Amino acid sequence: MTRTFDPLAAAALALCATGLPAQANQSLFTPGYGLTVGPVFNRNNLSSAGYNPANAVRLVDADESVRFGLMQAGAQYTLGEIDDLQKQLDAMDAAVQAARDQPLTAQARVDQINTLLPNLEKGARIHLAAGGSLLTPLLIRSVRLGGVFSVVANAQVQVAGQFLGRDAELAVDAGNQTVGLKTRSGFDVRVARLTQLALGYGTELTRRLDINANRGQLDAGLRLNVYQAKLYRQVVGFTDENGNGNSGSGGSTFSQDSVDSRSASAVGVDLGVAWTATNYQLGATLYNIGQPTFRYPDPLQDTSAVNRYAAAGLSAEQANAQVALKTHLVLEGSLYSDNKRWLGQTSLALNETPDVVGEPQRLASLSLSYNAERFEGSFGTLLNYIVPSVRLGLRKNLAGSRLGSTGLGFSWGIVNLDFHQSQQKVSADGGSVPRSAGASLSVTEKF
Known about the structure:
- The protein is of the alpha+beta class.
- The strands form 5 sheets. It has a 15-stranded antiparallel sheet that branches. A two-stranded antiparallel sheet has the order 5-6.
- The protein has one domain (about 5-370).
- About 15% of the residues lie in helices and about 45% in strands.
- It has 8 helices and 23 strands.
- It comes from Sphaerotilus mobilis.
- It holds the Pfam family TraF_2.
- Keywords: Signal.
């Protein structure tokens, strides 16, 4: 009996196995309103404290002492540029089984698989991310120390899967008789379960540097990030060296039980500056100073012979088990209307970095937001929850998937709801789905 090789099921199982628990750091998943507008400052949302560390100064007024968020959670997926992925993987899995059942047809099945491989290797990729935070960010203004301290804590899961194609060939027994086919092709799956605690400090430099306050306000901030991670890696194969498949072994999807995990910790620093004037704001943030590094387990230690056979086919570059989160610079800018209701914003990462599962990221964003009027009076509170603030955003990954997406977000009082999806689609199960999509819900105390 043939079992389906299902990369989406593998990813879902990986999420379940690790346990699902915001930052603008490109290496991390970013839930919250930033899913629509990108890693830019917004005075109406305390989640801005998780972006440029200098933002904390403008999020707590001089006559206030403490502000805090309530919760945020979100998830997104990205698929490779290949139509009917599951159908092609099913065909490959069926060819392996047919060659085993009818050895005389093995050469035809070898040719069939080798025809499928180029397309699969080009576009068979998946990426999933989900995460959230509770009761952060927490912002505390200190008059004595002349600044605002911030605490941000979040948990997330990232999953990446990439098909690695290796030519199929005939499998023979000790008597040189054909018994089926064998291939080192497989799906390389990485799973990272990550928690982050970030401690930051932001301060105003305008008076310290004797800058004319009528021209604007200069802020600077520093943040220390402490990461704890649980890492998994498995190359899910189709056959062992004797042509035996994964059927019945429980190995045709990612299996936490047959692969070792590795715990890891790392530390990184973020540094930011921001200039705010009446109708505009400019900012720059340097993330991942110190380049936090995570090393994944060796897939050759898998207890499944099929998976070890596939892992042995990795190139030296593919076998590299280390992911270093590169230092990268993100620039941002905003234009405000006089009444601050209309807001145009943009951001650009000047260089790329991998995320925790090794997927290249270099994001650019452009957005337009309207902050709804805050109503007063007997029905003011009700109207504030009926009439939403609205934001529309465009973003594109300039590395890796190179996908562009459109985002739409709404805010009702303290509740924020954001969606995004790519313009590109792929065929699946007789229909079509966006290559990338995501959603986020956040509840954040605000001014």
